[in-house]
Amino acid sequence: MAEDINNDEKQIIAETIVGETTEEVVQHLNNPVTDLKPIVKQYLTEVKGVKKEGNKFYFSDGNARVEVRVVSDEIIRVRLAPHGVFLDDFSYAVPVVDQRVTTFRLEETETHYAISTSTVTCKVSKADFLVSFADNTTGMVMSEDASPMHWEENVEFGGYYVFATKDCKSEENFFGLGDKSGNMNLRGRKFQNWNTDAYSFGWDQDPLYRTIPFYIGIHESASYGIFFDNTFRSYFDFGRENNDKTSFWADGGELQYYYIHGPHMMDVVKRYQTLTGTHKLPPKWALGYHQCRWSYYPESRVREVAEGFRSNQIPCDAIYLDIDYMDGYRCFTWNKKYFPDPKKMIKDLLNIGMKTVVMIDPGIKVDDNYWVFKEGKEKNFFCRRSDDYFMEGHVWPGRCQFPDFTNPAVREWFGGLYKELVELGVAGFWNDMNEPAVFGAGTFPNDVRHNYEGYRGSHRKAHNVYGMQMVRSTYDGLKKLMRNKRPFTITRAGYSGMQRYACVWTGDNVATWEHLKLGNIQCQRMSISGVPFCGTDIGGFSGEPDGELFTRWIQLGTFSPFMRAHSAGDTSVREPWSFGEPFTSINRKFIELRYRLMPYIYSVFWEHHRYGFPILRPLAMLEQENISNHFRQDEFTFGDKILVCPVLEQGATSRTVYLPKGQWYNFWTHELLNGENEYNIEAKLEDMPLFVRAGSVVPEYPVMQYVGEKPIDELWLNVYYADYEVNSFLFEDHGDTFAYEQDIYLEKKFSVRGDGKNLFIEQTIEGLYTPTYELYDYNVIGVPFKVSKIYVDDKEVTDFSFDDKKRLRFKSNKNFMNIKIFGV
Ligand code: GLC
């Protein structure tokens, strides 16, 4: 039939089918094996009544019910039960739904019900069941239904396809959704969430490895967020099918979403993290430079690479063993030919400050002589199909079965399997292929059954959380095995909340300039989607970068939360010295910079963990009121003090930089520039443009070849003069235990205030940790006056000088309370 109809006719048929988008109907028509039958979507009708139960309000149209739950003063959750009965209230993403609410009330008018908290009002219109959310202060409607929530029965699996359609304002832009390719602003595009092994993915390819069904909308300078907590295959349309509508829908489960109030994008992200959790503080060594390859083997090659770092004096904290360290790719075994004595090798590497990280995949080789398979089989821990056959598929080891990580008992078992590797001294674990990926088929068939925390479900429901539950098992297992030490785990797949268990890398990218640009956007996007500890395969996984591309990638990687170079096995060697000079020296300079800035980087991680701030902040977040910034995507701040402007064009020797509000110092030249302007900045290969916010205190450690190489005997404080007051902070602790949860840490706050003639620095210290150093060594940059006297806690400092870069240099004890620098 499809061939007999032209596109105009398809369009007409499409428009006559109730509730179906044109694109979907044209798809039906183009598929000759699908009968064209009208798809009947059912919509909520009118509100017949409301019932209150604590912080929950139940609205009904006589058949379907909607629950509106006041989660906090700024977060409201909405759920739909098409035939009145809600599903079990369980979520892998949100461990605890209710937060602190100061006050809320319900009001009824002729046309609607209104539930108000101290900041937000959620209205439900009586006549057509439309739900909206408005800001109490401005009265501005942030998000509102364009049509009532609707659904469609799923004849094959039971349950419903569920849909929400909201207004998309003419000037509205969208951000978030975690692991998406292409431009940062999501307006005008449609996306799908279905965790996918996307080898060599392209610009705009969708879906990729992870599912984060959370987006941020911005219009009229105000932001809000929607978190559609649904693990089934889900979809988002940001004004693509209809320019004035935003929709999200899923192939099953409940229509359940959280409205998260702003009005600032930062508020939205922080509040999203109160639902799904933040990343714990990683061990400090995890923030160093890491070297990976598929694969470094045999042992002699691993040693050679590790020693190469030390002989080239390029800092590095970890070397990775990809699948070839295993015996026939059997997880938790060693290939004894390549690695005859892993314990000794790991110890020797540790002696030169190099930690070992190994890969563990979910596919367990079907082999009755293999202990992991035997145990899993005996315990009945592997996934099964609907008719009870085992789920079998081919991955690296050949025929495999797969643990059902949605079963708590399976997670407990699998987490314990790391015991021997931990005893051998392995420091970190890398979970890959956990979308789950299966050669040929792509992933599991839909009918595979999962325990799903006892709530049961098919793979349709469990697919998107499989990887997250695998790395959860790894993280929890390691936490027990490593006693009080912080585990370091990496995952490829995940779902919202994955940040509680692991960091991520963006998967199998390609050694091209386009991928450098893409990786820059991807890490920023992950950061504002609640997954802050993210990095790309520096240099590109497949393909061959030249020295310039590799060096530009190292520069971007210096400011990626996770800094790891990785490459596929069929590519040329790729260590930071592989390209010769001048690249080796420039790579060294930037990797050293990462270590110099370690106290700043670590403090930014703490700020994320403790307060939910994203680590990378795109310009759209820094100045959401400036619409041009909704389209500027190649700069970001790391924390709130350092603006990073990576060079993403081949052959570039300068680039255009936009500086946000305030004043900024060029990190290299110390030139002071005014914000809210664009500049053309020199960016020779050795100089990626970096800026520091005036008024900042940026702490620095001496360069180390690895974290903890030497005790720190002096802390450098780079103070950037400003004519106004700016606060900075520094977090310090032991670096690899959970003692910080018992308040064993230090949080130092610095306030810097200049007035053109004088400069005042104040410090407050909180916490119970004692650092190893006694002194601060100051570099005050940009002092605009001639210095006459310096006092530290009213004691005069006579020993001060200006260095060749015009920086004021002096020292103080670490516990000072105030410093006064007076001009002549
Ligand atoms: C996958 C991973 C890649 C790894 C390879 C072999 O492609 O994404 O990082 O090197 O598998 O384990």
From TrEMBL:
Glycosyl hydrolase family 31 C-terminal domain boundaries: 612-698
The protein, known as: DUF4968 domain-containing protein
Keywords: Glycosidase, Hydrolase
InterPro entries assigned: DUF5110, Gal_mutarotase_sf_dom, GH, Glyco_hydro_31_AS, Glyco_hydro_31_C, Glyco_hydro_31_N_dom, Glyco_hydro_31_TIM, Glyco_hydro_b
GO terms, biological process: carbohydrate metabolic process
Family: Belongs to the glycosyl hydrolase 31 family.
Domain of life: Bacteria
All residue ranges annotated as the Glycoside hydrolase family 31 TIM barrel domain in the record: 280-603
Ranges where the DUF5110 domain occurs: 715-781
PROSITE patterns found in the cross-reference section: GLYCOSYL_HYDROL_F31_1
Residues in Glycoside hydrolase family 31 N-terminal domain copies: 66-237
Keyword Hydrolase: yes
Organism, as annotated: Pedobacter cryotolerans
